[in-house]
């Protein structure tokens, strides 16, 4: 079982595919879920402690917008833990959390720099393309075993 980083990092579709092939998906949903259920956090709308911004500084300089640092405080550790990655290009904004261009650039750069096995696929626009996409991802995940 490999730990697979998924991009967009909250894609339920990719998460499901990774789990079906016996691997562990590394997603924002898992990290945020832990924060939401943490009894130490007394401001649920924010779901952060004073440690999260400090963690973000490991991945992005202080001059970088705070939103990027905040996102990277969650995404950075997932990339560090990853043994492989699935990256979906051209996904619509509703497909996952891909609304921050700077975070996206930094995320993809970190995955590339890590040098882990990675598959890049395009978001399917037809049913036939979706079948091809699933087969490509399935073959990639099987090759990791």
Automatic annotation (TrEMBL):
Known InterPro entries for this protein? Answer: Methan_mark_5
Any Pfam family matching the protein: DUF2112
NCBIfam families listed in its UniProt record: methan_mark_5 (TIGR03271)
Q: What is this protein called?
A: Methanogenesis marker protein 5
Q: Which organism is it from?
A: Methanocaldococcus infernus (strain DSM 11812 / JCM 15783 / ME)
């Amino acid at each position: 079982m490999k730990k697979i980083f998924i991009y967009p990092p909250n894609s339920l579709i990719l998460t499901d595919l990774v789990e079906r092939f016996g691997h562990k998906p590394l997603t924002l949903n898992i990290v945020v879920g832990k924060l939401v259920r943490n009894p130490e956090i007394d401001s649920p709308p924010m779901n952060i402690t004073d440690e999260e911004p400090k963690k973000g500084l490991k991945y992005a300089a202080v001059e970088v917008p705070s939103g990027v640092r905040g996102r990277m405080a969650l995404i950075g550790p997932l990339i560090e833990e990853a043994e492989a990655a699935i990256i979906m290009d051209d996904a619509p904004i509703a497909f996952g959390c891909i609304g921050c261009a700077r975070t996206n650039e930094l995320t993809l750069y970190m995955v590339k720099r890590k040098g882990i096995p990675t598959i890049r696929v395009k978001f399917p626009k037809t049913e036939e393309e979706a079948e091809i996409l699933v087969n490509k991802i399935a073959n990639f995940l099987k090759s990791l075993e």
